[in-house]
Amino acid sequence: MPYGLANAPSVFQDFIHEVLERLRKFQLFLKAEKCSFHQTSVQFLGYKINSSGIKMDERKVTAVRDWPAPTTVKELQRFLGFANFYRRFIQNYSSIAHPLTSLLRNKPKSLAWSPAAEKAFNLLKRAFTTAPLLVHPDPDKPFIMEVDASTTGVGAVLSQQQGNPSRLHPCAFFSRKLNPAERNYDIGNRELLAVKLALEEWRHWLEGAKHPFTVLTDHKNLEYLRAAKRLNPRQARWALFFTRFNFTISYWPGSKNTKVDALSRMFAPEESPETPEPILPENIFVSPITWSEETLPPTSTSTYTPPGCLPGSQYIPRARRTALIHSAHTSLGTGHPGIHETLSLLKERFWWPNMTVDVRRYVQGCEGCAMSKDPRHLPAGKLLPLPVPSRPWSHLGVDFVTDLPTSREHTCIFVVVDRFSKSCRLLPLKGPPTALETAELLFNHVFRYFGIPEDIVSDRGPQFISRVWRAFLTRLGVAISLSSGYHPQTNGQTERKIQEISRYLRTFCHSHQNSWSQYLGPTEPSDVPAVDHWFRESERVWDSAHHQLQRVLHRRRRTADLRRSDRPAFQPGQKVWLSTRDIRLRLPCHKLSPRFIGPFTILKQINPVTYKLLLSPGYRIHPTFHVSLLKPHYPSVSPSTEPGGGAAEPPLPVLLDDGTAYKVKEILDSRRRGGRLEYLVDWEGYNPEERSWVARDDILDPNLLEAFHTAHPHRPAPRGRGRPPRRRGPRPSGAGRGEG
C-alpha cells in the first residue's frame, strides 16, 4: 500500500469501485449470495488463488487421493481427464502418466491393467498431494525458460526471480511425448524441438515480452544457432518462428538441469537402456580472455550467487570489474573491440549488476580506440544552406586555382562565380595576388560590369582575411562570408566550378599543359562550360566509334561469309518455294509437316538478299522474306509437259442447272469467320497456291464434309438445330495456318 496500511480501506474501495464500474458498463449482474469480500484467498474454477500464486483446490486433491483404481476403459479415461486439468502443477506429468495413457492406445475394448499402470496410478495420486505452488507470472520481470529433450520426450519449466530474498520460482511446467517421427531426430534437433514447443506453449507470455528472456539448455551447440550459415528446411522454419521472440540461448550443464531433465527422460521405458552419446565436457571455455582464477578474491570464487545472476555465470566483485574489462578489451587476442563485442565476450562467463553500463563507459573512454578508429556515424551537424540570391551577381563566390604550369607568364586563375546564374569570370594571374591586388581585380573586372554585390563567400586564404580586404568590402557595403576551417563545402559552388574548369583544361591541354591560358577565353562566356566540352568530345568519340564499328562489321562479315554460299539469282516473276521453318501450319505433327510450301511468284527484289512474294490471302503473313528461306522452283516433268505435248490446262467447270461448279479434290481445314463456317478447299487440277476458303453452303458434296470431320473431330463443325453450340476441342499439336 502507498504510505503504509493507513490508506488500505480507500485503496480497496477504489478496486471494488473499478470492478463494479466495469460490470455496469457491460451489463453484467452479480448475485450477492455468491460474492465474497475481504478474502485472502478464493476458490475459482477448481483452483485456489491467493496473493502468492495458484494451487489446486484441496477438496479436489482429497477426491484424487481417495480415487479407486480404474477397472474399465471409461473409468481410466475419467481419471485421466480429471488429472489432466491439473497437469500444469505436476512436474513430469506426461512421463508419470505414460503407462496409463498407453493403455488407451488403439481404442481398446477392455482395460489391461498391469503393475506398471498400478505404479503410475499411485505416483500420479501422490504427485497431487505434493504439487508446488505456481507463482503468478510478472510481465515486468524477465523470464527464464529451461528446456531439455531425451530420446522419448521433451520438457520445460518457465520460472521467474521473485520474493525477498529473490529466488527462482516456477510459473508453469510443460512436457510432451515425442511421436515416432520426432524420435528419429538427432539430439540437436530434439533439443531445438523442445525450445520450439515450449515457446508455442507459453507464447502468450513470451512473445512481445517486456524484457529479453533466457533459454537454458544442456546442448551447447544451440548457443550458435543464430550464427549458423547452413540450416536444413526444418531448422529454417523453426528459426523463422524464433524471430518472433527476443531471447538468448545459454548453456546450462545437464548435471544442474535436473528439473527439465526429469520432465523429458522419464518418457523412456525402464527396460530400454539409454544409448550413451558423446558430449562436450562442461568445463570447456574457449575465449580470448585470459583470466587467472587465483587473482579473484575468495568472495568471487565462493558459491555465493547474488540475485539476477544467470546460472553458469561467475559473479565478479566491484574491485575486479575494471581489470576484467581491461583484459577483455585490450588483449592481443581481441584487439580493442567495440562495446557490444566486448560485452558478448564477458557475458560468456561472467556477470555483475549494470554490466552493460560499465563496459560502455570503459570502451567509450579507451584512448587507443579514440585515436585509432575511424568514425562510423554520419557527419554531425544539419545542413545550413546559404541564402538564395534574388538577382544575378548579387551574391558571389571567389577562390584561386594555383600551382598551374607557366602559360604566357600566368600561373594562377582568379575565379569569380555568380551564385544566381552560375556564370563566372576567370582572370589569369602571374601569381597569387595580395589583398589589395585582389580588391582591384574584383572592382575592375566584376563590379564595373555587374554592380556592387550584397555578399561574397570565400575561404580563409590570406587575401580574404586581411584588413585591406575587409576595409574594401565594408566601405562598399558588401557582407563578408568566410568558410569554416577545412570545410570547403561552404563555398561549394565555387569549388564545383573549379572542378569543371580543371576538367575542361585537362581535356584540351593534354601533354601541352603550358597552353592552358589560351582556353580560358572560350570557357568564360559560356554559362554552361560543359556544353562546349560535350560537343567537342562527342565529335571525337563519334569519329572514333564509327571507325571501330566499321572494322568490327568488316571482320564479322568476313567470318560469317565462311559459312555461307552465294545467293541464287532470282528474278521477278520466277517461282520459288518458301521454307516453313517459321510458319505454323495447321497440322497435327510438326515432324511430318512439309519443310517448304508453294510455289510462289516473286513480285520484286527489295534488296540484294530480300524478296517480296505473291501469297494468297489465307496465309496472313508478311510477304517479304530473306533469300535463305527461298528455294528455286523447277517445273515438274509430266507427259503433258513433254515436247509437243502442250501445257496442261486446268479442268473446265461442271455445268449445273443453277450455274457452274468446280470439282473439289480435298477439304484441308475449317474455321469460323464472322459467325460463318468456312473450309479450306484444294481444287482438282489446280496448284496449291490456288487453294481458297469457301463457305459451307457452297460445298455441294456432303460426303466431303463428313470425311473431313471424321478425320478431324476437333476442328470447327456445323452446329445442330436446337442444340447448344459444340465446344471447340483443344487444338492439335502443330496446328497453324492452312498451307497453300
From TrEMBL:
Pfam families linked to this entry: Chromo, Integrase_H2C2, RT_RNaseH_2, rve, SH3_Tf2-1
Location of the Chromo domain: 662-720
Compartmental location: Nucleus
Cellular component per GO, a single term: nucleus
BP-aspect Gene Ontology terms: DNA integration; DNA recombination; proteolysis
Alphabetic keyword roster: Aspartyl protease, DNA integration, DNA recombination, DNA-binding, DNA-directed DNA polymerase, Hydrolase, Magnesium, Metal-binding, Multifunctional enzyme, Nucleotidyltransferase, Protease, RNA-directed DNA polymerase, Transferase
CDD domains registered for this protein in UniProt: RNase_HI_RT_Ty3
Biased composition (Basic residues): 711-730
Region ranges (Disordered): 707-740
GO MF entry, a single one: metal ion binding
Integrase catalytic domain segment(s): 388-506
PANTHER family: PROTEIN CBG26694, PROTEIN NYNRIN-LIKE
Name the UniProt record assigns to this protein: Gypsy retrotransposon integrase-like protein 1
Annotated organism of origin: Hemibagrus guttatus
